[in-house]
Amino acid sequence: MLKGWHAQLPSHTCDRLWVVRPDLRRGQRQTKNGVRMTRATADEGNTKPAFGILIECDGVLCDTHREGHRVAFNRAFSEFGLDCMHFNPHVYHDLLRCGDGSAEGLVTAFFDVVGWPTTLATADRRPFVSRLHEAKQKHMIDMVVTGEIPLRTGAKDFVQEALDAGAKVATIAGTCSTPEEKVAEAALEKLGVGSSDRMRVFMLGASSPPEQQQAQAQPPVESLSLEAQFTRAQARIKEDQASEFIMSLRADRETSIPLGIDPALLAAAKGGKGPLSANFLIACIATMMLPLRQCAVIAGNGAVMRAAKQAGVASIAVPPPLSARGTFPDADYAFDGFGPGGGITWRRVDALLTKQSA
User: Which PANTHER family did the record assign (predicted)?
Assistant: First the structure.
């Protein structure tokens, strides 16, 4: 006669249920009517913790600047009849540190150095740069659609190895591209269905969620009924509370208790505007339901590494080739690309996170 919680199980389940004898020593086997056998193992109870990695798409999975934006600018130059203008990789890399950080500022800095077209009046320079940038954007989108922007060598194998090992993998998109360019979608397609369908994507600079767009399209408060005004106020309070909750996630860095949140709350943390923040990274990692000490951020962009350091998350630098000789003060570890030798491999990341979480 079964007692306790066993008695609540269906009879067919109880027939297959049997208790391992505590008097058996490790390595001895127990059978029951030839059904199945179990054996205590030496590593019983020593389950390895799960790990999570957050990978920057634009700098790590793809070299978006070199293989995407730079090439698109050169095609725009040709379209405008400026065949003598050309960004080689080294020139473009230097230009990224000039200007005001925008694409228009980069082009302006370039022409300020090499000289503006002689047929262009000073007053026409800004409109000219805007038209050139619009042409560049069209070429960029065409390149993404046709799959011309490749993954970095070894990136696909690294992601596959991490997923096969049971790691939770996500990617941050939009650090060097816009949502309209859809670089992340192209990268996921190149990773393959077996990998991309197990990954989560967090997009920076995405447009407002449908709920916010609907609220923005609503008439003024004065024209709403009392019930509608109450509903809108309630929505605002809920959004403010979500934002405060995201900010409080920083406390999770000191605890081993994993904290999971709904990905929809990420909108309250980033607001669709501004640079990547530590709070946004913490919120992304929280959706993995893992403590921060069991996660790492893999980045090629200094701003992402800085945010990771501020968030208290391990930061791993895997910069694009032209930035490989740079210094990364906010990175805990640095690798030259992917693969054996000086590159990053999942085995190395696994060892780092195992040591960190011990």
Answer: CBBY-LIKE PROTEIN, XYLULOSE-1,5-BISPHOSPHATE (XUBP) PHOSPHATASE
φ and ψ at 333, to 5 degrees?
-140, 155
User: Could you tell me how far CA 273 lies from the centroid of its own chain?
Assistant: 16
Q: Give the distance, in angstroms, between the CA of residue 256 and the centroid of all CA atoms in the same chain.
A: 22
Tell me which residue of 113, 144, 114, 129 sits closest to 80, measured CA to CA: 129
Residue 104 CB burial class (10 angstroms; 0-12, 13-18, ≥19): middle
Q: How many other CB atoms are there within 10 angstroms of residue 281's CB atom?
A: 28
What pLDDT sits at residue 133? 95
Structure tokens at 225: 């009924």
Residues 6 or more apart in contact with residue 306 via CB below 8 angstroms: 330
Burial string for 174-200 (b: 16+ CB within 10 Å, else e) reads bbbbbbebbbbbbbbebbeeebbebbe
Spatial CB neighbours of 54, under 8 Å, sequence gap ≥ 6: 170, 171, 172, 202, 281, 284, 285, 295, 296, 297, 298, 313
**Res 212: pLDDT:** 38
State whether 21 and 90 are in the same domain.
no
- Residue 60: which of 179, 158, 139, 136 has the closest Cα? 158
Residue 308 CA to residue 330 CA, distance in Å, equals 8
110 and 164 belong to one structural domain: no
Q: Provide the whole-model pTM.
A: 0.71
Do 11 and 125 reside in the same domain of the chain?
no
Contact 159, 192 (CB under 8 A): no
Torsional class of 32: left (φ above 0), alpha (ψ -120 to 50), beta (otherwise): beta
Q: pLDDT band at 271, cuts 50/70/90? A: very low
Query: Among all chains, which residue has been given the structure tokens 């990547």?
Result: 276
CATH number at residue 90: 1.10.150.240
- Cβ 32 vs Cβ 289: under 8 Å: no
Tell the residue number behind the tokens 């698109």, with chain if given: 72
